[in-house]
Amino acid sequence: MSQTRVEAPAAAPEGRSAMRRALDGAGVQNISLLIALVLLVALIGAREPVFFGAANLKTIGTAVAISGLLAIGQTMVIILGALDISVGSVAGLASVASAMIFTATTGSAPLGILGALVIGALCGLVNGCVIVYGRVNPVIATLATLAAFKGVAQLVSNGRAQGYTGSDPVFVFLARGAVAGIPTLIWVLIIVALAVHVLLKYTDIGRNIYAIGGNDVAARLAGININRYILGVYLATGVIAALGGVLITARTGSGQPISGSEGLELEAITAAALGGCAMRGGKGAVSGTLLAVVLLGVLTNGMTLLGINPFWQNVAKGLLLVVAVVIQQVRSGERRVGLPA
Amino acid sequence: MTPTMTPATSGPALRVEGLGKRFGAVRALDGVTLDIRPGEVLALMGENGAGKSTLLKIITGDHRPDDGRLLLGGQEVSFGSPADARRAGVRVIAQEPEIIPHVSVAENVYVGALPARGRLFSHRALSERTRADLERLGFAGAMDPGCPGERLSPAQRQLVEILRALTGEVRVLAFDEPTSSLSDHEVSALFALIRRLRDQGVAIVYVSHRMQEILRLADRVAVLRDGRLVGVRPAAETGEDELVRMMVGRDLSAMFQRERNRPGGPVLALNGVTTDDVTDVSFEVRAGEVVGLAGLVGAGRSELARAVVGDLPIRSGEVLLEGRRLRPRSPSDTVRAGIGFAPEERKAQALLLHRSIRDNVSLAVLDRLSRFHLVRRAAERALVREYADRLRVKAPSVETEVRRLSGGNQQKVVLARWLARKPKVLILDEPTRGVDVGAKAEIYSIIDRLAADGVAVLVISSELPEVLGLADRIVVMQNGRVTGELDRRQAGEEQVLALAMADQITSEGARQ
């Protein structure tokens, strides 16, 4: 068998130019997003120079921080091959919980935050258990908990904003503080994004998440305990959504059952899809999602600056989600027969 | 619903001429010429993979032939889809018919051809019509036309499929292993129906493994082997012995050259293992030994393997690994204990098609390659390269996506995954399916080397020469039970085949 070409010892990657490698590393998806972003910025900036002002850029940054967090959680879930549409409600519940615990502990911000995160973890665990042990399709399961968690948040809060955290130094620091000139909100997003990025790209846990999303049967037969991963990913997503809820509390100065969190699931899923997460699982990255989050933030901000009727924003978000998924499906070459896989 | 018959002309109802079909490197059919005559039952026999299903699928429009042509009543035809074939009067009764679970038998029968007045149709009229159809065919009372599809037994499902076929014009009716899920009584009723259809001038193609059945029912028997037609015999002039000889009679290729080593102690032992699919299975695999698990498709071999690795539940009995009882709740337990499993459906069950060779090979060893959960990338790349080289995986780089590889190279990637894990037991389900001849030989030598390294290897294969060439010992299964164990020195194709079909022959014999 000496004639068989033994697999070339990966001469290819080293041999390519730096430019080529950078392009490959970033991926087609990210580059198209970047181009879209640049075009959008140029378009908006040309008509409204205010756009480039430091204040406005900060507005965009703080506006995308919360939806960005949820989008990063969503990225993990989608890579796993599932979906979590309850994240907005989890954020709302966590927001209420953080403020109420804060009040109940006579002003302990750490306890309020910790409590909210624990509640987020529990919510994620409920999602995971309903899916794994109840055998409920992830969309249906989290659609149900989307309603249920929102209901719980309204019940405990009587539907009203709770507590006043606006004078607590910890919450104020979260909402308006800055480190090295960058708002704390953005730091939170950066830290979570980095952590999830490392988890997905450099650990066996992340690699197994991609494997499960790519082919769960193969992953299971290769010895991966897929139930544990599903529970774990939903739990992590719950915690991240709860962190988003804590930031909502910080920004508004009180616990908000609905306002500020409702509809975040749409933004999160749109960002993940636009960022290149394949809806069938196994593909996607934090970097793409982040770019898409920024793109969406700029779009929303630009539409406001240009004085476009805010109702158009919802139309635009809906359209973007559909377009992002259509592009994905066209590229995957799926046959146009029956319901999509 | 009375089938409209074509006038019994002297020529064949359907003639296939020089039919050829290849799948990748595998020649599934090669120059098959065969007449299917009206008013005759033609039985189609052959081992697994001999080409029976491919032939059936071409006749009924599921596959298009690469070579050759179909002549229906003397006219050349080309079916683009099963619907085309049905319109032309060529139908197949599938082994497991598609039944719509939540609608009635009557609607299932007339699906796609619901008799309607305008847009309205009457449930009652439809039920009556179906009841009348059942009576006419001699199955009165076999099932209630209003019964929902999901509650039907396998026999009733088949009956629905037959009724469907007879709602239109039928010239050629093919049955694919119709009796595998039927009771004796139902088999008799089915045979009576087939004979009646035959006498009305329908050309019947009957595919089965059951020798006695075929000799009882068929007028002529056609035997396929390796995609070629070996011969056609009048059923009255042939017998079991001749047919088995025609089905096997093949030289063992020189592919198998192996140093037989003295096997060590038992590594994997099954003790009365019973699952939903298999009953009371016991055998052992020793270190350095290759055990072949032979049997017909559907004998329960893959299900047994999946139960052993914890993918399907074990109802009773025990699995011992090096003497210790395994109680796996999922494959992650058995992988950790030292059992590797390369499943039958490579693409669906083993590979991450859109990911690289590296990702696929390291999948089962990532835990060992990680420190504090961080994957040591250099170590990973080195390991993957080592095994990809050793198994001669042909690809531009280890970063190549697996879907771009040939079937043989994909299988090598799966094997590399398990070799890298260094299991004590490796279970390979159809390791050479869809693999070209060259890669086949390489996979055989990989299996030999594994055994030489002391791994206990269990190979499930439906190709008899492969089992006979590879295995030190052969366990034969049939209908979920072990029907025999043969040493390689005493095993020949006839013996294995006899054990694989034994039960059916005796029970059929008893029936007569």
From TrEMBL, chain A:
Could you tell me the superkingdom of the organism this chain comes from?
A: Bacteria
Span-the-membrane segments of this chain are 26-45, 57-79, 85-104, 111-133, 139-157, 178-200, 229-250, 289-308
Q: Which Pfam families match?
A: BPD_transp_2 (PF02653)
Q: Does the keyword DNA damage apply?
A: no
Q: How does it sit in the membrane?
A: Multi-pass membrane protein
InterPro entries, alphabetically? ABC_transp_permease
Its localization reads:
Cell membrane
What are the record keywords, sorted?
Cell membrane, Membrane, Transmembrane, Transmembrane helix
Q: Which PANTHER family match?
A: ABC TRANSPORTER PERMEASE PROTEIN YPHD-RELATED-RELATED, RIBOSE IMPORT PERMEASE PROTEIN RBSC
Q: What is this protein called?
A: L-arabinose ABC transporter permease
Q: Which organism is it from?
A: Streptosporangium pseudovulgare
Source taxonomy:
Bacteria, Bacillati, Actinomycetota, Actinomycetes, Streptosporangiales
Q: Which gene encodes it?
A: araH
Automatic annotation (TrEMBL), chain B:
Pfam families referenced in this protein's UniProt entry, alphabetically = ABC_tran
Alphabetized, the UniProt keywords read: ATP-binding, Cell membrane, Membrane, Nucleotide-binding, Repeat, Sugar transport, Translocase, Transport
Instruction: Please tell me whether the keyword Endoplasmic reticulum is annotated for this protein.
Output: no
InterPro entries in the cross-refs? AAA+_ATPase (IPR003593), ABC_carbohydrate_import_ATPase (IPR050107), ABC_transporter-like_ATP-bd (IPR003439), ABC_transporter-like_CS (IPR017871), P-loop_NTPase (IPR027417)
Q: Which domain of life is it from?
A: Bacteria
The ABC transporter domain covers 14-251, 247-504
Q: What is the protein named?
A: ABC transporter
